[in-house]
Amino acid sequence: MELTSVVGRLRHGFGAGRTKPARWRRTQLQALRTLLVEGEQELAAALRTDLGKGTVESYASELGFVINEVDFALKHLDRWMRPERVHVPRSLLPARARTVPEPLGVVLVISPWNYPVMLALAPMVGAIAAGNCVVLKPSELAPATSAALARLVPRYLDEQAIAVVEGGVDETSALLEQRFDHIFYTGNGRVGRIVMQAAVRHLTPVTLELGGKSPAIVEQGVDLAATARRLVWGKFFNAGQSCTAPDYVLAIGSARELERHLADAIRAMYGDDPSRSPDYGRIVNERHFDRLTALLDSGRVVIGGEHDRNARYIAPTVLADVPADSPVMSEEIFGPILPVLDVPDLDTALAFINERDKPLALYAFTADPRTRRRVLAETSSGAVGFGLPNAHLTVPGLPFGGVGESGTGRYHGPHSFETFSHTKAVLDKPLTPDTLRAAYPPITPLKQRLIRAFT
Ligand code: NAD
Q: Which residue's alpha carbon is nearest to atom 34 within ligand 1?
């Protein structure tokens, strides 16, 4: 596919005003919904091939998520598109001021492999709702899903405004040569830097949805059995390959007991042999499998540790006695390995977190309101989850995004619409009466007094 002509086609469509009317946006959002409903089997099969995802998991965390985003956007689109009145200072009266959202133009969405449907289509919901043309570049590391999207999108959506470009580094690099009006990238920080650098050339704004090590603090005195269930659910969903998954646990004084509960929870959810559980996923490829198995030596394996390269299977694994400077603690794990670190108190836990990059999410399991206040006030992260990992991203009113090394920008619900819109400032002042006369030179002493009084 000739990239220049693809982008040129969309730019022509945007220039002709094709995507601006609310009607187009609604039709496309509804068509996207239909794609997800009618294409469910095809997409679920692709997700099984790429990541061993079960049908229910695929629906809950991928297709269903996007359907909810579409429905939310359809419900609120009129309000989002409406201009908003803004207060005018008395020095300018009579006048009216308002903000008007306008689409940015042709936007590029680059998505990763771990939720290859959700992370491709959810940003597209916002881009379409805001009236943009979209080039979608799915991840080559989820090839079956990438191919399914490349088949389905042109079948359901407006080809003059929305295109899928498949490929890996070469194709993405070539795409980044093109001029876009926004680049929305989800993936790792190394490539995030490449994207940002490419964007500089055209002063293109970027959203970077990155990752990092999201900690979970577990305080003494909480219900450890319930905490363990929540941690196991949040960590081992999609075999740990979730950007918001708890990366490691800082257990305040109760690490040994927590480890026992984690073992119980893993057994209860995935059975004695998780490789036979239909609810447990696989590692995306051999490279990531090798990277992850090399991390198993970073501590004492309390549970799990079994792995099978041919099946790209790594059992849900808990590591204890993990030194803070071990390999498993120096990079984002992004797989089913959960180190539990023993810390003496909250001060140590907060200091540990603050010595590291700002995480995408920070979780705390505590019954103490003072701890909640301290966690919020003394740390910085994309999001905070008290008592439950990952689920904040399913609340459409909450912005989803990182800070610092975990990313820049936000989306979901109204925040997606804002991300893909320019908020235009409009001031409307009648020519008569000409109330500004007092401000025109020459500035007399009387005018000076008036200007001071009204400024
Ligand atoms: P990936 O390897 O699929 O890469 C993401 C995209 O970048 C792909 O489309 C790929 O083609 C492209 N790409 C790769 N190398 C490139 C290069 N040299 N130049 C240009 N483009 C290139 O996915 P990944 O980065 O391994 O994804 C995992 C990371 O993403 C983790 O760090 C995870 O935390 C993060 N993540 C973040 C979110 C979020 O919403 N914040 C969601 C999922 C994953």
A: 211
